[in-house]
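Why predict the complex rather than its parts? Because the way molecules touch one another can change local conformation, and only a joint prediction can capture that. The input here totals 443 residues.
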Amino acid sequence: MLELKAGERHPIKFTLDGVEVRGFAEPRMLLSDFLRHELGRTEIHIACEQGVCGACTIMLDGNPARSCLTFAVQAIGRRVETVRSLSPADGKLNDLQESFRRHHGLQCGYCTPGILVSSEAFLRDNAKPSEKEVREMLSGHICRCTGYAGMVDAILETAEKRATTAAS
Amino acid sequence: MKPKSFSYLRPDNLLETLQALQRFGDDARIMAGGLSLVPMMNFRLLEPRYLIDISGLASLAYIRETPAEVEIGAAETQAKVLAWPNLNKSLPLLTLAMPHIGHFQTRSRGTVCGSIAHSDPSSELPLCLMTLQGSVVLQSADATRVLSAGEFQIGMFATARRPDEMVTAVRFPVRKPGAGYAFFEMAQRQGDFAICAVAATVSGSAVRLGVGGVADKPTVRDWPELADGEIDDALNDFAWDLGGSDDIHANAAYRRDLVRKLGRRVIEEARKCSN
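Output of the joint prediction:
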């Protein structure tokens, strides 16, 4: 049994966007704080810290997860991906991100990293979603600029384009 | 918004888990998905000194079906249960209710047993378990006992679990032949906690209605027969007996009205699905 004592900083090692990362954390440290403050990954946006808003959503072993409801120690030995894992190369956007830009799927951008991570996971499980399904998926996020219409269009368009590419 | 300091334990098997519980009792909490527990820790409503993480225990991540019941293990996520191919055939009420639990992004880690162990009066799975008259398996290092849903959940966030026990599985009775099932809830936003949730089962002339979000725990009422002309009065009595209270989301009168309106809606829908 792994036992990590309270009040002590323990070594943390996991794979972040394909690269092994290390740091130290007390058991109480949230993964969101570890990513931001220990690893400097400011694409993790923190808002509600109660799992409601979705801004801090990451992928943990390939599944969407709220990093504010995950402890850094839980990530030990696992695979974590943030929105950075989407871009094919530094400074480049993937098709979903391009589509968000085209459809004005973001305004202030605070909720965007989490929404992109979720949307990517959602499209992987559901290659041909209906508009209703996309809206239901987006209900797991809060955008206070209320720019959902553009996001729905962007996600639907990406799904359609990917289906066409896969078919040809 | 940060939890109080705790020690983190990740047992390798169920025995280690139960031994840790025996050692630390009330100072320990089991965490599976953490979707209910961690917000409460972040708010410091709960301050466990030991957190026992069972999310990685493969032996508890299962769905097992017998002719009478479906048993779901403590580490099985809501997403896995929703994707289980037999769900609609064996547990149609869960097919209807589970999409209302949180979101795609939270069901991926939230567990069925965790939700039932948490026993929020407005959450969907405790309501389904109560309505279907399922049971909860509680295990300690010394013994195993099985409680009915009604024996298990005794109030708001309160259960009959002893400090050295954990919920290792829950059991849902499978669909009765010919029975009809319906579920509906009113929430401020898809996936939010229900202001009022209703689940109905109809088997022959017998009608059962479960209501969540109004009383301090999900509450079920049975009518051996319920003629169309009697539904309104029966639901009105039930709504008043539930004794709902006011909170920032809705007042008690609105909740009673939801019991009357949504109750009728699900009873009629369950009747249509039965034969």
